[in-house]
Design goal:
By secondary structure, this protein is α+β, with helices and mostly antiparallel strands. 33% of the residues lie in helices and 29% in strands. It has nine helices and 19 strands. The strands form four sheets. Strands 1, 2, 3, 6, 7, 8, 16, 17 and 18 form a nine-stranded mixed β-sheet that branches. Strands 11-12-14-9-15 form a five-stranded antiparallel β-sheet, with helices on one face. A hairpin with a 2-residue loop joins strand 4 and strand 5. Helix 5 crosses helix 6. The model has no long low-confidence stretch (mean pLDDT 96).
């Protein structure tokens, strides 16, 4: 019972520290002090504000460290969170998210460390701005890490082992047409909104195939009701588990907007920005084998998954650290209905401790 209470109290404390993306400093500093005071760990905050915690082995013969990854930031609305514990379930009061994504992962790692009989050398990274494109993990200097194997705690289902993630291309389009008075001489104008509409009509959205999606999330243009709109702006994204497909379709989108603009006498200025690159961890690799054993320890059948969303694991794999993503037990993430069962948090702790046992070198 002591273990449960300590874990829950830690989690409740963490979710009440505001840390929406870009505003994580207070939480990072709180965690730095916690790791230093409670575990006598060596901590550093890098140039981007990520927290890196170095912990020596405990009753283990292993000398190679493993990476444990979480992130400090939450989505909005994540300020003034008031957690409520009732009947073994933790929720927010209802006006905000709960912040279990990813503070449940942080609390579970802390509890696993507190109660672990052994663990290998550890490198724990609490990154910033994961929710806005893994910006913290992306900026992390790989020279600061020696791990070649990693486990990120950042999905919902406890049976999941994420071995694949997509490439994600941000596509920004600015159309410049020609303004004109809509009531006096509309024929002299070139409507940027019409150009965008024509281009969108030629593009498919949603699932393009079993591993590729395309979405237009932002569209705005014009300034006043009685003027032919001179400008329009579009923000879209293409994701694919196949990196080359992501590149190919993004270039196709670019050409469609440019062609639609040219046909109307307008100009299209398109920017393609690869937010992150597709990852694929071999299913027969050691990190996957360990993750599967950890899931089996809590009585579940491991389910290897590829996901359409991103995670810090994409950045760690790109840096040469073979990394999978495991579950924290959180449910209904990114919504005001987000919640987590205390029993699921306990299971996640046991899963982490099994990873410690396997990698300790016995």
């Amino acid at each position: 019972m002591e273990s449960e209470n300590t874990m829950v109290e830690t989690f409740l404390e963490l979710v009440q520290i505001d840390s929406e993306s870009g505003e994580e400093e207070q939480l990072i500093e709180h965690l730095r002090k916690l790791f230093e005071n409670r575990f006598l760990a060596k901590c550093m905050i890098d140039n981007y504000g990520n927290l890196i915690v170095y912990m020596p082995a405990k009753k283990a013969s292993a000398i190679e460290p493993i990476l444990l990854g979480t992130h400090a930031d939450t989505v909005k609305p994540g300020k003034g969170i008031e957690p409520v514990l009732a009947n073994g379930v933790i929720r927010s009061k209802g006006e905000t998210i709960l912040g279990a994504d990813d503070k449940a992962g942080i609390a579970e790692i802390i509890e696993a460390l507190r109660t672990a009989h052994c663990h290998p050398p550890l490198e724990i990274v609490v990154s910033r701005e994961e929710e806005t494109g893994h910006l913290g993990a992306k900026s992390l200097d790989p020279a600061l890490l020696k791990s070649r194997m990693g486990f990120v705690l950042d999905i919902d289902s406890l049976d999941g082992v994420v071995v694949g993630g997509p490439s994600n291309m941000f596509i920004d389009v600015d159309i410049v047409g020609k303004a004109a008075h809509a009531g006096m001489e509309p024929e002299k104008g070139i409507s940027a909104i019409r150009v965008v509409s024509h281009a969108i009509g030629m593009l498919n959205e949603g699932w393009l195939d079993h591993e590729t999606t395309f979405n237009i999330g932002v569209l705005n243009g014009g300034e006043v009701r009685n003027s032919v709109p001179e400008t329009a702006h579009v923000e879209a994204q293409c994701r694919s588990l196949d990196h080359e497909k992501c590149l190919h379709h993004s270039e196709l989108v670019k050409r469609v907007f440019e062609t639609a603009a040219l046909a109307s006498g307008a100009v299209a200025k398109t920017k393609l920005n690869l937010a992150y690159k597709a990852m694929r961890v071999p299913e027969d690799s050691g990190v996957v084998t360990i993750a599967k054993r950890a899931v089996q320890t809590i009585g579940l059948t491991p389910r290897l998954r590829s996901i359409g969303g991103g995670s810090d694991a994409s950045e760690y794999n790109e840096k040469g650290i073979l990394t999978v993503v495991l579950g924290t037990g959180a449910r209904s993430g990114h919504t005001k209905e987000e919640h987590i069962y205390v029993e699921d948090m306990r299971k996640a702790v046991r899963m982490i401790q099994e990873i410690f046992h396997i990698t300790s070198g016995f």
